[in-house]
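tool_log.txt
---
The assistant was asked to compare two proteins side by side. It first ran the structure predictor on the initial sequence, then on the second. Raw inputs and outputs are pasted verbatim so the downstream comparison step can read them without reformatting.
(1)
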Amino acid sequence: MKKLLLIGSTVCTLFSTPVTALLGAEIIQHKETNAQATAARLSLQTFVERALENHPAMGKLRETWREQRNLAMKTLAIQELLLTASTGLTLTDPVYSGGAISANQSTRWTMESGLTKTFPDLGGLTAGVSLGHGTTSTSDTDGSSTTVATPWVGLSLSIPLIRNALGSADRASLKKMQLGLSIIDRSEEEAVELLIQSLAQEYYAWALASEKAAMYQGFFERAGQYYNQVLRRANLGIADQSDIMLARQNWLGYQSSLLSANQTANELGLGILARIGVRPDGNTNIRFLHTPDTSLPALKPDALVLSVSKTGPTNSISGFRIVQIARLSLEQAREEAGIARDAVLPDLTLSIKGTKTASDSSLDRAFSSMAGNTFFAGLVFSMPLQHSSDEYSAEAAKNALARRTKEYESVVLDAGTALSRYRLAINTWRQLEKIAEDTSAAAAGRVAAVYTRYSQGRATLNNLTDAQDAWARTKLQALETRYTLRRLELEFASLTDRLTRHVLPD
């Protein structure tokens, strides 16, 4: 590249002498405006950071992340304390048997509250405690009435033995939820990574267009110098009309290319400025506000790091974020399949209950004198006798697991292929970049040599313009090769999780 710049500087020196057009033709003038000279340099790093601050996708990502996490956290409800409360009124009419009243009219009011909690790590144990009391008023046939208070305190335990045996399904549900949270976190990180990649590609396109515009500006100016020189020669009688037309044709051609290149650079520049919240008016030349950093050194690891990551960069396929997401999704599907298989099993639960109660006309005395104990231990069994929706759910979960397995294998294969492809492509394009730079330098040297011969009358204007056009083509090829390499390096950095270390919000 230094070699190219040296030769290019030599060529510019050759044409640095001001030339005045003769024979009444137009005078070619090229002046850089103060605004263009003082345009602010916008680096890739600064652009990405400012663009992320203004990008609407970032706010959407945050809200989506929070929504998905809230939905995933619902599974934790299995571990939460459950409060229950009930109250009710029971009325009983007198019962007649053989013409006599065997049971009097009564009114019973009950109130009860309790707490239950499931412990997946303790074999799926569900423990509950309840506290309640009832007040029963009985009216006799003789008009008398009695009121009895019956408070109680109960403790219940239940342990699943077949379905959700010893809490296996509960633990699987908890693990599924934790896997889901990990997927959400990494997916959000990956979304930010891809957004940064997209922004950087926009910047590269703008930088390339700006370099093309600058390149054509230089060649347009040189074509103008050739044109003026031919006019001067024609005035001296040493150039004919065909040379004038050829020089003018060459100059107009580069003018057309320059206008097109400036239009492209300005259009891309408008998008760049919009990304960072700048709204220029319709009369403002975009390139006079900001110019890109066209040096674009090769991306190094962590070149666009914005914050600290939970995952970090890696060259190991298993460590790629996209592979991690696929693996976590596979594990989640495996847990879901296990939960679905469990749901079709019969339900057999060991149930243990203990109650302490008392009865007295005074509620206070009844509470203080609880002495009656009731104990129950037994098994509760249930199973569907027909096909249930759980069976269809189990089959669907099985199919989903098979699909996720294939998806994971595909992601691993594609990631490995992409890693090899990028390494090969980057190595090849680095060689192509060197060749393109050397070719452009050689073409620039040829222009200098042909110009010397043209000035001595040993070469035609056609020879000079051909050399100039060849230099333009090789220089354009060198530019495009360099940017192709940078885009490949960018994509490789994204693949290996090097563009961001995003920290998720609390």
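(2)
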Amino acid sequence: MHEVRQIIQRLRLGEKDRKVARAQKVGRDTVAKIRRIAAERDWLNATSPMPDDATLAECCKASGKNPQNISTVEPFREEVLAWHTQGIQVSTMRQALVRKHGFTGSAHSLYRFLGREAPTAPAATVILEFAVAEMAQVDFGSGPVITDRQSGEVFKTWIFVMTLAWSRHQYAEIVRDQTVETWIGCHRHAFEWFNGVPKKIRIDNPKCAITRACYYEPTVQRAYGDLALGYGFVIDPCPVADPAKKGRVEAGVKYVKANFVPLREFHSVVQANEALRTWIMSEAGNRIHGTTRERPLKLFAQTEQALLQPLPAIAPECPVWAKAKLHPNCHVQFGLCYYSAPYRLIHQTLWLEVAPSALRIYREHELVAVHPRLFKPGTRSTVEEHMPPEAQAYFMRDPQWCLTQAKALGASCLAVIESLFANRVLDHLRAAQGLLRLRDSFGPVRLEAACARALRFGSPSYRTVKKILKEGLDHQSDWVPSIELEAPYRGAGRFSREPSDLLH
């Protein structure tokens, strides 16, 4: 009856039901019932003695209020509190109570009990101080929804924010994704915006920067590591699930989302970024910051910008690295575009080195292919040497090749090939290739003769030429006996009419 006793004591002090319920973490109805019981028995009088547990239990039971409804954990108070001090989880406590005592309460009842009896100390924070030009903090936040005016496409965006920890001056950019390539590009743009590079970049643990989050030794994305080496900054990931370590950019993201995004309409990412940068230079950078009580842009221009590390004379390329499996069609996929690699590597996992201008494909440390970078989805870059021999032969022996080979064999062969390509219904490339391959079996002279015979009989096709050669008909003469028609079948038809009569 410990909880009931505490509630009565608070009621004696004149506290309202709402305040008592909030403090004791019980419902106001429960407080009201206890107040009614206490008032009936004059327990609310501070001069009256406090009833013992047995009396309280009897009165609560008589009133229809089971004291166990206040807390089913109360009979096991000491045991539960001891477990709590040992750091045992609530789910484990409940399982032990069920095994040992037949406990019927829920895990929530344990949480409520511990919240009253063993409240955790409030989390304390420490204000982090940073030297001038020492650090920038980076984060993503949700951006505006943009409706493309031309296509009608509606898409979600993200806001990349880099905040200088000392001056609070910031760079922001609206993007459509959080890929490694976008992440690196936004860093480049931010350094150009500041015209310098801070010594450290504090980040959360996004997949585009950290491939494996770990408190002690996180694994950095290869491309991001190259960027850090190229620009001369150190990557400083926050501990997992501890965003307070980069509170300045967290505040910066909230400020952009609350003050720039609302009540604005954008129809392209370019338009949105132009408006965002204008807003940073005119409003965000010139506001009085709540902590420093200075204008971020003024602090940056007067002090911090000069102390940033200079930009490299030549910007490092910093390609993006990705793994991809070579498909049976001899192509790998990156960014919805396709790039060929040697057919002998089908089903093998390859490394892609993706730069703004080129894409290189590696098998372990061996460079196996180089392609120009493609950006339009669905486009393909194919090197014929990467295809299997049969495919290479097919692509090499195109119509022009077939015509050139036929011309060298003779006029008849050329005429047959031209007739095949003149067909508007069926693609006869394979038929032309097959006809020319007959030279290997029958020789060029016989092939030319067979083509001449096929032309004379009005059947310039692969099948006809092959039949002529197989049956040796190219050696026979082309004489065809004349057939004399009888009189009824000569001249005009018996029932024919003049064409002029049909018009009337």
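---
observation on (2): The chain has four domains: 2-117, 135-307, 320-386, 397-475. The chain has a mean pLDDT of 86.
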